[in-house]
Design a protein that fits this description.
about 200 residues; alpha/beta; five-stranded parallel beta sheet; globular
Length: about 200
């Protein structure tokens, strides 16, 4: 069973991590998706619970936004250079356990290079990444879920649409694609688009 651990910096990507966590939990179940704000009970010992979750996860997702790499400590040093930085420790454990560590890059954020990272998490620079864009957040997350779920099959085929027998040449019938996109091309004037609802898994 897929157990997912979400690693992120709150000030850098909390808006997206909220949605990502919710959609992953809807698909896999909340007990299979660990995010500190969603999964820790009141009174839980943070370090102990985080380490336990990291030990049982089978996939780690590192959410990387525009300020992930240059987040600073009060003394001005980069957080990622601190061996006690939680994000760095999470990634170290993921690589030590040889589980997939997937960088999820937000809104065009570049994948950090090995030269920009501490040596113990330098592998992140060579990891296959995924991108989530603000204008297509939910579609990008759904595609990520499809890739994470080993039991996910291909999308259900589009159900055929019954086109009425009509002599009205000004009416064009279209079928929505997998993500609901309709392309209507009617060169004779005004096009009226009628939508038939289909449900995909």
């Amino acid at each position: 069973m897929t157990n997912i651990f979400l690693s992120y910096r709150a000030h850098d990507s909390v808006y997206l991590t909220d949605r990502l966590s919710a959609m992953l939990a809807d698909h896999f179940g909340r007990r299979h998706v660990f995010r500190d704000q969603d999964s820790l009970l009141l009174g839980a010992l943070y370090p102990q619970r985080i380490r336990h979750a990291m030990q049982r996860c089978t996939v780690m997702i590192a959410v990387i936004g525009p300020h992930w790499l240059d987040a600073r400590l009060p003394n001005g040093a980069r957080r990622i250079d601190d061996p006690k930085d939680w994000v760095r420790m999470e990634l170290c454990l993921g690589f030590d356990r040889a589980i997939p560590v997937i960088p999820v890059l937000l809104d065009g954020t570049a994948l950090p290079t090995a030269a920009e990272l501490p040596a113990d998490i330098g592998k992140l620079a060579h990891s296959q990444y995924w991108q989530i864009r603000h204008q297509s957040t939910e579609a990008d997350i759904r595609e990520l879920i499809d890739k994470l779920d080993p039991e996910a099959g291909p999308p259900s085929p589009v159900a055929p649409v019954d086109v009425p027998n009509t002599k009205d040449n000004n009416t064009q019938y279209n079928v929505a694609g997998e993500h609901g996109t309709i392309i209507s091309n009617n060169g004779s004037g005004t096009a009226r688009v009628r939508m038939k609802r289909n449900v995909w898994r």
